């Protein structure tokens, strides 16, 4: 890497001639592919913005100028160019480079960006702050991978021209999120054909007007309205961005680094909010990723030369929880014509694509719009349908008001399936499904449960679609389950009932969900290591409502109780048990095991479970 090897920080990049930038892009792209082939991460998205990344750091004085990335899996090239190339091999590993940009790690990372659609609002705040403080600072928001469909992006756009700012929004339009982008914004961007003659003319006119002082704040808005009218006449279409008084430029080729540098230099001095629309290819420069961007979004390890993914042999192993969900949803939908499926841009990630292939008219990918997904489900439920709305637990945080206001108040039968609940591993604190139990159990009318294994997941899904259940939350983790032969009969579970998995005399262990398997192993080993120790184990199944009969039995028999959950301790499952016992007069010592009152870093799930004390050894320590 003769050029990339000399670049430790963007200042080194800016010392190169523009003619050397294409070679820098080639080397950066090769470096990303080589690194991710052995240390898995988000490949295709970062490959698609290599030229844009190089151009941004070449034109702007980072970190003084702010680049705000949206959905940080685009930012691997950014990390490599900003002092982290030598340590990039630690990306996503325990105590290594963080999976997404964060100001805690680098001054070049201006904002946290693990979730989509926040870049415009954050960048607008930074741009307004710079104006109010009299600072000469450029602010750029880079939004893409379907994030423009998120409601927060529209809120930021709507507000962008209201306050004095010189923000630049770059729309990285690759027609993708993880799966293909959907919705009206996708269709609009596909059809947006800006007149090239008009664009060239506007660049020249804008530079002349700027030199004459015609683009000062008091004259700018009127000129923009005139510009919009002229452009509409020439291109025979209305531009949504310019309708919001945001100057629009594009679309341009996002893989021509020299052209990008030229455009960015021209836009850098322009006043007021601006949007630069770029067409890019997700996975650009690596043929397998270009052909199958969804698979190569995060492909795992692979052979660079052959493009073969290195996949572990899973023959005879239990399936992933998400696949059991997908297969069971289709099975239920075949039986129950009221069932529909809803997902915010994750049909493959949550396996709703299984139902989508057979019943496309009854499955809805609403794009990156979790709040809308819930309210949309509520509207269908109000009119007699039975939506299964599948959202990753960490992403469902953005739909909290919708769950309360648009589902729970009316007690609507929406089944909210929270995939990736609990610790998720290498994606870190922005993606851990830590807060769903604590936040949702306070909401009236909610039923909240978590399956011990795949059979229980199927039974809970069957139960949720029976009559009169109201809002029903099922949380389950990322990754494989525990039963290879998962296809059991579908049977209803009485809501609010748990079960005793093992009897004992000295103490009781209460678990919720698959974390119970680690507790069972810990109990077995403690009883073998501590002769005479007798420990009961209860799978509570439901955190709301709790099984009062089972808790009465536990309260009467045991003075010592340990609760284990894969969620935050504060306000979670253990807190619910403690509250119930206190309210019913049981003087019982309760030790709660769960996630601590801090954000848990990234690493393998087993490593993180050990750190927070909910692995087998941590549970054994508490039992002893």
So how many helices?
25
**Spatial shape:** globular
Radius of gyration: 27 Å
Largest sheet entry: 7 strands, mixed
Strand content: 5-15%
- N-C termini distance: 55 Å
| Biggest sheet, spatial arrangement of strands | 7-6-8-9-11-10-15
Structural class: alpha/beta
Helix fraction by DSSP (H/I, runs of at least 4): 25-40%
SS elements, strand count: 17
Whole-number average pLDDT? 91
Which ranges are low-confidence, i.e. pLDDT below 50, for 5 or more consecutive residues? none
Description of the molecule:
It is a single chain. The protein is an alpha/beta fold. The protein is built from 25 helices and 17 strands. β10, α20 (454-464) and β11 form a beta-alpha-beta unit.
What order do the helices and strands come in, and which of them pair?
Layout: H1 10-13, H2 21-38, H3 44-47, H4 50-59, E1 66-69, H5 76-84, H6 119-132, E2 139-144, H7 151-160, E3 168-173, H8 184-191, H9 196-211, H10 217-235, H11 240-243, E4 247-253, H12 257-268, E5 274-279, H13 287-291, H14 321-335, E6 339-343, H15 353-358, E7 363-365, H16 370-382, E8 386-392, H17 393-396, H18 400-408, E9 415-419, H19 436-440, E10 447-449, H20 454-464, E11 472-475, E12 499-502, E13 507-511, H21 516-529, E14 535-539, E15 542-544, H22 548-557, E16 560-568, H23 573-583, E17 589-595, H24 605-612, H25 616-623
Parallel strand pairs: 1-2, 2-3, 3-5, 4-5, 6-7, 6-8, 8-9, 9-11, 10-11, 13-14, 13-16, 16-17
Antiparallel strand pairs: 10-15, 12-14
């Amino acid at each position: 890497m003769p050029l990339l090897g000399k670049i430790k920080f963007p200042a080194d990049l800016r010392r190169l001639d523009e003619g050397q930038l294409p070679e820098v892009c080639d080397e950066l792209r090769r470096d990303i592919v080589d690194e991710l082939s052995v240390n898995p991460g988000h490949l295709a998205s970062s490959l698609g913005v290599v030229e844009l990344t190089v151009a941004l750091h070449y034109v702007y004085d980072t970190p003084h100028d702010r680049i705000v990335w949206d959905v940080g899996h685009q930012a691997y090239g950014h990390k490599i160019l900003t002092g982290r190339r030598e340590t990039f091999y630690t990306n996503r590993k325990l105590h290594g480079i963080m999976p997404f940009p964060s100001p805690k790690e680098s001054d070049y990372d201006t904002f946290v960006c693990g979730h989509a659609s926040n870049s415009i609002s954050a960048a607008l705040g930074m741009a307004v702050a710079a104006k109010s403080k009299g600072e000469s600072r450029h602010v750029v928001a880079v939004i893409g991978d379907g994030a423009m469909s998120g409601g927060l992006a529209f809120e930021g756009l709507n507000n962008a021209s209201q306050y004095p700012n010189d923000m630049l929004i770059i729309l990285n339009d690759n027609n993708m999120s993880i799966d293909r982008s959907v919705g009206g914004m996708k269709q609009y961007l596909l059809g947006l054909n800006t007149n090239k003659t008009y664009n060239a003319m506007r660049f020249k006119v804008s530079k002349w007007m700027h030199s004459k002082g015609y683009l000062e704040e008091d004259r700018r808005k009127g000129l923009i309205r005139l510009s919009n009218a002229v452009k509409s006449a020439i291109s025979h279409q209305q531009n949504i961005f310019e309708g919001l008084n945001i100057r629009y430029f594009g679309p341009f080729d996002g893989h021509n680094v020299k052209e990008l540098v030229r455009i960015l230099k021209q836009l850098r001095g322009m006043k007021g909010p601006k949007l630069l629309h770029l067409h890019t290819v997700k996975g650009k420069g690596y043929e397998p990723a270009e052909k199958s961007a969804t698979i190569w979004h995060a492909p795992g390890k692979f052979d660079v030369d052959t493009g073969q993914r290195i996949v572990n042999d899973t023959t005879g192993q239990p399936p992933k929880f998400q696949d059991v969900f997908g297969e069971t949803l289709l099975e239920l939908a075949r039986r129950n014509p009221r069932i529909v499926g809803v997902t915010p841009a994750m049909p493959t990630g949550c396996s709703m694509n299984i139902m989508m292939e057979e019943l496309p008219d009854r499955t809805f990918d609403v794009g990156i719009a979790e709040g809308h997904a819930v309210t949309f489900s509520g509207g269908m439920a109000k009119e007699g349908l039975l939506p299964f709305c599948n959202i990753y637990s960490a992403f469902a945080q953005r739909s909290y008001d919708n769950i309360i206001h648009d589902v729970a108040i009316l007690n609507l039968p929406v089944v909210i399936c929270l995939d990736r609940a609990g610790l998720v591993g290498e994606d870190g604190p922005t993606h851990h499904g830590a807060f769903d139990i604590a936040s949702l159990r306070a909401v009236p009318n909610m039923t909240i449960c978590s399956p011990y294994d795949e059979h229980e997941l199927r039974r809970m899904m069957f139960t949720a679609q029976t009559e009169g259940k109201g809002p029903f939350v099922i949380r389950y983790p990322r990754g494989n389950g525990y039963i290879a032969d998962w296809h059991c009969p579908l049977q209803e579970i009485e809501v609010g009932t748990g079960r005793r998995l093992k009897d004992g005399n000295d103490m009781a262990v209460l678990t919720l969900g698959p974390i119970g398997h680690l507790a069972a192993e810990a109990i077995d080993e403690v009883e073998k290591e501590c002769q005479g120790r007798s420990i009961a184990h209860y799978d509570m199944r439901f955190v709301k409502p709790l099984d009062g009969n089972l808790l009465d039995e536990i309260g009467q028999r045991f003075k010592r109780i340990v609760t284990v959950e894969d969620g935050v301790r504060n306000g979670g499952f253990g807190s619910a048990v403690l509250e119930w016992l206190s309210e019913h007069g049981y003087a019982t010592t309760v030790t709660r095991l769960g996630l601590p009152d801090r954000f848990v870093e990234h690493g393998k799930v087993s490593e993180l479970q050990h750190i927070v004390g909910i692995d087998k050894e941590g549970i054994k320590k508490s039992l002893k």
